[in-house]
Amino acid sequence: MNRVRTRYAPSPTGFFHIGGARTALFNYLFAKHNHGDFIVRIEDTDIKRNVVGGIESQFSNLKWLGIKPDESCENPKEFGPYIQSQKMQRYRDLAYKLLSEGKAYRCFCTQEELIKNRIDAANKGVTPKYNRHCLFLSEKEIQKKISDKIPYTIRLKIIDNKTISWKDMFRGEIAVPTNCLTDPVILKSNGIAMYNFAVVVDDSDMKITHVIRGEEHISNTPYQIAIRDALGFNNKIEYGHISLIVGKDGKKLSKRDQSLHQFIQNYRDLGFHPHAVTNFLALLGWSPKTNVEILSMEQLVNDFDVDRVSKSPCFFDFDRMKWMSNQYISKMSDEDYLSFVKKFINVDLSKFKHQIDEILLLYKKQISYAKEINDLIHNTFFVYNPQEVCNKIITEQWQKVVQSFISSINQIDEINLESIKKIFKQVKDITKASGKDLFMPIRLLVTGVEHGPELLKIILILGKKEIKDRISKYINSLK
Length: 479
Ligand code: GLU
Known about the structure:
Helix content: 40-55%
Bound molecules: glutamic acid
Strand content: 5-15%
Radius of gyration: 32 Å
Strand order of the largest sheet: 3-4-7
CATH class of the largest domain: Alpha Beta
């Protein structure tokens, strides 16, 4: 078998979307699983739709996900250029070659004529196809139009009464009768290659062996095979179309829906663990043989087999992404965790400048993404609502615990682990409260909320002065 070569071929018409990232990852995993090459090529022929920063967004986010191209415009090898806008002449030459061989023809039809053609087809209830008006022009008519400078596109002549089929890597046999296809434009009147044409030329020039892409491209594949055949490219290419990613409602994700975090940059900005995002994407349409869901890139490469790629739509579940990121963050070493989360902190921690690491470590097991920590810190260390505390400490037993805690803390000079443990023991002995009845009222008194990180640690970080302050606020609210 030839060396496996896959490619991810984004158009920089938007930013790096989870759908694109999943396609890139599947191509990468398949190539690496088979000891092959993964190529990134930029398909920027639709110049009007390209967005500023589109290419940059692809490369920097691929890197963040740990998907390393073996070849691209950033690390070119002999199969370049890897940006389509730099290959225009090559496409033109091949389009004219097909023209000279009689496999393609010039189409002089205007937009208005083409629209009328489509309406006529719709009225007749047949599939809208180009009516081949220009296929039947005489050589004389063609030359006259050329000398009159009438703009023309070049269309491939689809061979009638044939069937184009391929064995899809994930979907099995797919067959399309050529009578259902229209003669596609391969070169626009401004000399720019059409998407299907440039793709075929590049896949051949770059010696691609497997094309893995979204199912929205299934309808392009028969055209691409027809173009390949016309060009006489005979290197074998396998096509595989992966399923759509859908939202919880079962509908295709809309790129306009801002609430969904659909761009990889969103995850980066929020401080998700990059390996978690990669791991999550791998499971969007592929499942490992075992139930183990947390898989490193190395394991993914090792385990990725095409038989386990599903053809039914896969659900995008943000909660699962959060769960996965939490799994990765909570297992980081303290050192790595601290340097990772510090980049995302925007609360002013100068008041606790000697305890920053301790504060951040309180949340290591809890957070799904680093930015989440800001609100958590704010709520524990910078907000205290005594009235709410009064409203929550209502039973006599809880009030007794709180009173006992207050009088014990007033008797000590310094708060440290030993003294605070002693206080808890004293309160327990005096009030006979234990478990939740011991800890909850004290937690409420000290932090104002029912949930949060380890209570002893919070007390140590807050320190005696802050705790006394909070206690007096609470006492004042009781009046
Ligand atoms: N450039 C195409 C896109 O962004 C991908 C083409 C392909 O994978 O063949 O959708």
